[in-house]
TrEMBL record:
Gene3D superfamilies: NAD(P)-binding Rossmann-like Domain. Belongs to the short-chain dehydrogenases/reductases (SDR) family. InterPro entries: NAD(P)-bd_dom_sf, Sc_DH/Rdtase_CS, SDR_DHRS6-like, SDR_fam. GO terms for molecular function: oxidoreductase activity. It comes from the Bacteria. CDD domains: SDR_c (cd05233). This is Short-chain dehydrogenase. Keywords: Oxidoreductase. It comes from Streptomyces cahuitamycinicus. The keyword Transcription regulation does not apply. SUPFAM superfamilies: NAD(P)-binding Rossmann-fold domains.
Length: 250
């Protein structure tokens, strides 16, 4: 039997990158999967696609209701993955930019979790996995705002794990390093010499290569599956050794 046979999952930001790879892996392993995304137009069957903006509470509630109905009722797994990046020091981003990125990266997870909790409580294998980042704890240069949002995601993961452990809902997060997603592709394309920039980025990784979306999806799937039934309140690094090996990150 596959790990997710009979389980129902919802993945935010599931139309691209890490979320897409996760939705596809969960479906391959037997789950019924709904994707919530700002632009779900590229999402194909068997994934169920729902448009939602995680910064809009009504949009999230409507999409979660529709997704759970589309899954035939019930929900076992929530992957809070939708997120956006931000560069710069504290001097570079004005207050409204801090509010905008926090709204997606932190409150987006709060809104989606709030909408999903009543359904998760009814599950016998409830798990939430939040996509955090090495930025939560690594002290990366030029990432003050982004790092602060991911630090908040880390704390939120621990607090949610404590709040819901006796309800049988596990909550964990993954901390990816630099992952080869469309997001990173866009950053590289903006460089004067994208190929040279990619080579430099790869050279800075302990493994000499970027993490693949499938590798992050594998970690998320483990934390979402009954195989990790005794694991809650943890952060799993998926960073090619960036933090554990104490090497200088990007
Ligand atoms: P991506 O840009 O490829 O995909 C992100 C998806 O989220 C997109 O489909 C986008 O439409 C969706 N999204 C963005 N804002 C949204 C909103 N307001 N409402 C609903 N959906 C929204 O990015 P990715 O690289 O796959 O990143 C996914 C997650 O992984 C993010 O939380 C990011 O912080 C985290 N992460 C990425 C990396 C990396 O190197 N790529 C590293 C660490 C952590």
């Amino acid at each position: 039997m596959s790990d997710f046979e009979g389980l129902k999952a919802l993945v935010t930001g599931g139309a691209s990158g890490i979320g897409r790879a996760t939705a596809e892996l969960l479906a391959e392993r037997g789950a019924q999967v709904a994707v919530l995304d700002l632009d779900p137009s590229s999402v194909d069957k068997p994934l169920l696609a729902h448009r939602a903006d995680v910064t809009d509470d009504a949009s999230v509630r409507q999409a979660v209701t529709a997704a759970v109905a589309g899954l035939g009722g019930g929900l076992d797994v929530l992957v809070n993955n939708a997120g956006i990046g931000a560069r710069g020091t504290v001097e570079d981003n004005p207050d409204d930019e801090w509010h905008r990125v926090y709204d997606v990266n932190v409150l987006g997870m709060v809104r989606t979790t709030r909408a999903c909790l009543p359904h998760l409580r009814a599950s016998r294998h409830a798990a939430i996995v939040n996509t955090c980042s090495v930025a939560a704890t690594a002290g990366l240069p030029q990432r003050a705002l982004y790092s602060a949002t991911k630090g908040a995601v880390h704390s939120l993961t621990l607090a949610m794990a404590a709040d819901h452990v006796r309800e049988g809902i596990r909550v964990n997060c993954v901390n990816p390093g630099t992952v080869d997603t469309p997001w990173v592709g866009r950053l590289l394309d903006a460089a004067p010499d994208p190929a040279a920039e990619r080579a430099a980025l790869e050279a800075r990784q302990p493994t000499g290569r970027l993490v693949s979306p499938a590798e992050v999806a594998g970690a998320i799937a483990y934390l979402a599956s009954p195989l990790s039934g005794a694991t809650t309140g943890t952060a799993l690094a998926v960073d090619g050794g960036m933090q554990g090996l104490r090497l200088r990150p990007v």
